[in-house]
Amino acid sequence: MTLVLRYAARSDRGLVRSSNQDSVYAGPRLLALADGMGGHAAGEVASKVVIASLAPLDDDEPGDDLLAQLREAVQNGNAAIAELVQQDPDLDGMGTTLTAVLFAGSRMGVVHVGDSRAYLMRGGQFSQITRDDSFVNELLEQGRITPEEAAVHPQRSLLLKALTGHEVEPSLTVREARAGDRYLICSDGLSGMVSDETLAEAIQIPDPQACADRMIELALKGGGTDNVTVIIADVVDVDFGEDAPIVGGAAGDGSDEFHQGDSPAARARALTQPAPQPRPEVQPPQEDPKVKRRRRFRWLAGAVVVLIVLAAAAIATRYFVLSQYYVGEGPGEEVVIYRGVPGSILGIDLHSYEQGSCPPGGLCTDKLLVPALQEDARIAVKNGVKKDNLDDARKYIDDFLRPHKQLADCKPATSSTSTPPPASSAPPVSSSVAPPSPPASPSSANQPAGRDCSTPATAAPGGGN
């Protein structure tokens, strides 16, 4: 025999409340319902957090100790509430009830905190299987009030136990599961609006979904003053049960919300539901003049700081540039000295003319031109030869470049050999008559002017960059 669950779940915000703080989960192994409390947003948060802590139990194969699994999941959910309250003190006071069933074949583990309820229909007998953790129920069990008085007691919503982030001991029990059992799990939005006798009659509707719909309809007809959430689950002996989980209420997307068409309850909802309030037009906030002035002052101060930094950078750059010198090619291809560095920025030269190739203060008769230099020196000057100061630049021209020019201008001397005069058979001449001068050698007549390269001048030592 294989026992599985066939289930349905429905939730509705009721006819008075503007939001739904109940959260519900129904799956093949887990049925759980949490009724949030503590304000509009806080109740929703608490119920969702606890349901989220229990939901993983539906994915795991139940072990032998069902109650240990339920206890741990509840503790995790309660700890999550405590952490949220610690992060946001405005959430202090929020909490939730919880009634959940973990199904494992022939056994059912039940955990309960608060005044949500679980009922069992077995063999035609309908009974409540959880105990309300409420002040009114304490009075009722002690015989101090009657059931009729409990139904209208002004403190009937006062809970003695709830999951609020503080330490709490939930009620844990294990029950036998039998084929044909039907379970009803509901929030007090149903049990507070509909009598046990009416519930016992409605729970006999065979289809679980139709039964859940009928339960909510009865709660709305009874006044619908609270959120109402219902789970109907049948234990059946079949090979395969349902496996698609239902997540509803505050934890869901609204797809489980109950709709009744043109039923009396729907018409009652239309009459009692608060009219939607128009969304107020959002006005841009007026800025404080003092804040505006402070912001303007900060902006101006920031601008001044930026300008000071830029000015300091410009001064430092100018100082660095003006402390540099280099030898380069100037107007008319003359070798000159520049102050600064080669190049330009945004069309502005980073250098200025300082001196020509001749020392200042004297008559320059021998300008040094770039084309007159040897190739290596010519290339270096065209690229700019950097020097640390003006004296080094002048020394580089006079002691290094000028010798290169002299070597470039010198012409190799052509060696000549004197040809002795031919022997003459004429008689000797008288010593008083001077002999004629021998004719000039053609090679000597054609020798160009210039220094003899066979005896090169000593070049003064110099250096490149």
Layout of helices and strands:
Blueprint lengths: L2 E10 L9 E5 L3 E8 L2 H15 L11 H22 L7 E2 L1 E7 L2 E7 L3 E6 L2 E4 L6 H7 L5 H6 L18 E6 L5 E5 L1 H4 L4 H7 L5 H14 L6 E10 L8 E4 L14 H9 L16 H34 L2 E5 L5 E11 L2 E8 L19 H9 L1 E3 L2 H20 L32 H4 L20
Antiparallel strand pairs: 1-11, 2-3, 2-12, 3-4, 3-5, 5-6, 6-9, 7-8, 7-10, 10-11, 13-14, 13-16, 14-15
Name the features.
single chain, 465 residues, alpha+beta, Phosphatase 2c, domain 1, five-stranded antiparallel sheet, rod-shaped, disordered C terminus
Annotated CATH homologous superfamily of the largest domain:
PPM-type phosphatase domain
Shape: rod-shaped
Which CATH first-tier class of the largest domain would you pick? Alpha Beta
Q: Sheet bearing the most strands, described?
A: 7 strands, antiparallel
- Indicate the CATH topology of the largest domain: Phosphatase 2c, domain 1
Count of helical regions: 12
Helix percent reads 25-40%
Distance between the termini: 101 Å
Structural class by helix and strand composition: alpha+beta
User: Would you list the SSEs in sequence order as H and E?
Assistant: EEEHHEEEEEHHEEHHHEEHHEEEHEHH
Q: Which second-level CATH architecture of the largest domain applies?
A: 4-Layer Sandwich
Q: What is the beta-strand fraction?
A: 15-25%
Report mean pLDDT, rounded to a whole number.
80
Oligomer: single chain
Query: Which regions have little confidence, pLDDT < 50, spanning 5+ residues?
Result: 260-285, 411-465
How many beta-strand elements? Answer: 16
- Rg, Cα atoms, Å: 55 Å
Any idea how many domains? Answer: 2
Pfam families: PP2C (PF00481)
Catalytic activity: O-phospho-L-seryl-[protein] + H2O = L-seryl-[protein] + phosphate; O-phospho-L-threonyl-[protein] + H2O = L-threonyl-[protein] + phosphate
EC number: 3.1.3.16
Protein name: Serine/threonine protein phosphatase PstP
